[in-house]
Amino acid sequence: MREYVAVPADFSVPDDWSCVQSAYDRAARTPDHVAFRRPVDGRWVDVTDREFADTVRAVGRGLVAAGIEPGDRVALLCSTRYEWNVIDFAIWSTGGVTVPIYDSSSAEQVRWIMEDSGARLILVETDEQAGTAREGTDGLDHVRDILVIDGAGTPAIDALVASGEGVDPSVLDERRAGMDADSPATLIYTSGTTGRPKGCMLTHRNFMSETLSILETPFHRYLREDASTVMFLPLAHVLARAITYAGFHAGVQIVHSSDLINLVDTFGEMRPHYILAVPRVFQKVFTKAQATAQDGGKLKAWIFAKATETAVAYSKANRGPGKVGPLLKARHALFTKLVYGKLVAALGGRCEVAISGGAPLGERLTHFFDGIGVNIFEGYGLTETCAAITVNTPDAMRIGSVGQPLPGCAVRIATDGEVEVSGPVVTAGYWGNEKATAESFADGWFRTGDLGSLDEDGFLTITGRKKEIIVTAGGKNVAPNQLEDALRADPLISEAVCVGDGKPFISVLLTLDPEALERWKAYREKSGSLYELLSDADMIEHLDQSISRANRTVSHTESIKKYHVLPDQFTEETGELTASLKVKRNVVHQKFAAQIEDLYS
After folding, report:
1. Is the pLDDT score of 113 beyond 90?
2. Which of 16, 373, 456, 519 has its CA 20 to 30 A from that of 588?
3. Which residues contact 454 (CB under 8 A, 6 or more apart)?
4. Biggest alpha carbon distance in the chain?
5. Rounded to the nearest 5 degrees, what angle is found at the Cα of 273, between the Cα atoms of 264 and 304?
6. CA–CA separation, 370 vs 577, rounded Å?
7. CA distance 161 to 83
8. What gap in Å lies between CA 40 and CA 289, rounded to an integer?
9. 23-62: string of b/e by CB count within 10 Å (b at 16+)?
10. Which has the closest alpha carbon to 125: 91, 98, 152?
11. What is the DSSP letter of 583?
12. Interacting residues of 451 by C-beta distance below 8 A, sequence separation 6+
């Protein structure tokens, strides 16, 4: 068993801490500092620390008037927007516990979370979601009300502020005094790639430990009072919520956006100093730039291809033991003027760092962005670790790894290769599920279910999921992630799911990116169905080459022998993806059992 303990934490969370205290402290310390910018009637309006804290208190009094008692759970089904943070902090101000629900959730999913958590109130964003919530809570006597944030009636925020006017402000001070750092702050229901989601309990100590540990790393240079960020990932996910909380605590100006279609325009207007994204966002930025170059003719396509090669080579030389040679340096300077500046501008023009999480980014894409001057730092964590527990930093980065443990945290590799973690960011367990809690811990260490390795400097590399290991008929254990990550690096491929459990060899199911496919159609001057396109020898050759590149990352016995392209995308609505866009392998295997069997017939 290999273990790596990070540097000791130079912080401690006071035992009487609660996360809402950050709002109160900032209002007292920097009342006129702009904490948020929110859209009002087509324009952006500043929200100061004092205004935010006052709104949190007013809404909190409204929740008290609605009957919320300390320890009560309150559900929040809403996209990423300013009101999400207001309501979250207001729930904390009452001593309550926030239960996030993805805004895309079905009535059945809402029902499970409301029933399991015992939430007494649910706030939703739209009237349509209110209908889903009514269907999902029908017959649940403990649910008192459904409030709509942005519907046809009085907005929930305004209604709560009005109803709370008769509540003595001292009630919130009493509630605050009755809480401590180990009180639950939230129940976050895990995505549930298999089985029913479990309610992960995170405390105020967990959230504050995550914040303070991040601020002890070199990232404190970017989370500062004169910096800004655009938060567009779902706040129902722990990663976006924890990084938003850390930014707010540090004084970063935060802009929310759920308009992913016009995200580049928002970046251009807000010019964020740092962004948090998932790999798909960075892949889209690269793919769009590549497509634009290809649409401009053979010369521009050739220039972009050479610029890509140069960026990757420059990053590898810069990060490696050698030096950047004069010829590579000259090529890099040329492409900085011709290509790279436009990509940097697409992120707003002053993005100093980017943080990627949720899934592996891939070494080539990381090297590409690193080579153009946008440092993307990958980290690793789960809902159970309150977001990141390891991270690459500006002062300690090893591309291909997910970094070193945060201050005060530790990572070890069990004898079977499983990654186990400990530290103040780790959950105390699952809501009302002692069996799952006991199964997830070994002598105080949380069993992540991921497989990985630690190098001599404590950089962690994730190699797969313990439960996703494929055992072929020949007894070969194959971790599919490495193959799938390599395939998804192809702009044409959207998803890749390896199969082969109990079979003589590995095969893969593929879905193709719709935008890339449209460009392929235009480029080839073809029309018709996906299967007509796949009869095109050029398309088949392209996919064959992609499979070959992926196979070069593994041994011959682990390599893919056959593939099948599915006609439709994986989506949350059709059941193949979780709300956080992870593939539900069991669903894919069940839905496409016939196609899988055909690969071995």
Report:
1. yes
2. 519
3. 2, 3, 4, 411, 412, 413, 460, 461
4. 74
5. 50
6. 30
7. 13
8. 32
9. bbebbeeeeebbbbbbeeeeeeeebbbbbbbebbbbbbbb
10. 152
11. B
12. 417, 418, 419, 462, 463, 464, 465, 466, 469, 479
CB 266 within 8 Å of CB 259: yes
For 266, the token pair is: 């928002």
DSSP 3-state of 242 = helix
* Mean pLDDT, rounded, of the chain: 92
452 contacts 461 by C-beta, under 8 angstroms = yes
**Backbone phi, then psi, for 103, in 5-degree steps?**
-70, -10
According to the model, what pLDDT value does residue 384 have?
97
CA gap 88, 91 in Å, rounded: 5
Q: What is the pTM of this model?
A: 0.85
Do 205 and 353 touch, CB atoms closer than 8 A?
no
- Which strands sit side by side in the sheet containing 353-356, from one edge to the other? 43-48, 34-40, 253-256, 228-231, 274-277, 353-356, 375-382, 387-391, 404-405
Domains assigned to the chain: 469-600 (3.30.300.30)
Count Cβ atoms within 10 A of the Cβ of residue 545 and give its class: 0-12 exposed, 13-18 middle, 19 or more buried: exposed
Going from the C-alpha of 6 to that of each of 314, 406, 424, 489, 549, the distances in angstroms are 30, 6, 12, 32, 36
Instruction: Count Cβ neighbours within 10 Å for each residue of 198-222 and write b for 16 or more, e otherwise.
Output: bbbbbbbbbbbbbbbbbbbbebeeb
Non-local CB neighbours of 469 within 8 Å, separated by 6+ positions: 451, 477, 478, 479
CA angle 253, 176, 100 (to 5 degrees): 55
Residue 138: both structure tokens together = 């029908």
Structure tokens, 567? 């006609």
Place of tokens 């707010």: 248
| Contact present, 84 and 90 (Cβ < 8 Å) | no
| Count of C-beta atoms within a 10 Å radius of residue 528 | 10
Confidence (pLDDT) at 3? 80
Residue 600 burial (C-beta neighbours within 10 Å; 0-12, 13-18, 19+)? middle
Cβ atoms < 10 Å from Cβ of 456: 7
Residue 324 confidence class, pLDDT cut points 50, 70, 90:
very high
Joined together, the tokens standing for residue 470 give 């494929």
| Whole-number pLDDT of residue 592 | 94
Side chain identity at residue 327, one-letter code: L
Please give the full DSSP string across 55-86, using - where no structure is assigned: HHHHHHHHHHHTT--TT-EEEEE--SSHHHHH
Q: Which residue has the tokens 């240079």?
A: 221
Q: Is 381 helix (H, G, I), strand (E, B) or coil?
A: strand
Q: By C-alpha distance, which of 204, 290, 288 is closest to 249?
A: 204
DSSP state of 340: I
At 170-212, the pLDDT tens digits run 999 999 999 999 999 999 998 655 567 899 999 999 999 999 9
Scanning 409-563, the segments in alpha helix (DSSP H) are: 434-440, 481-488, 514-524, 530-534, 537-551
What is d(CA 285, CA 290) in angstroms, rounded to the nearest whole number? 9
User: Tokens representing 455?
Assistant: 């190098």
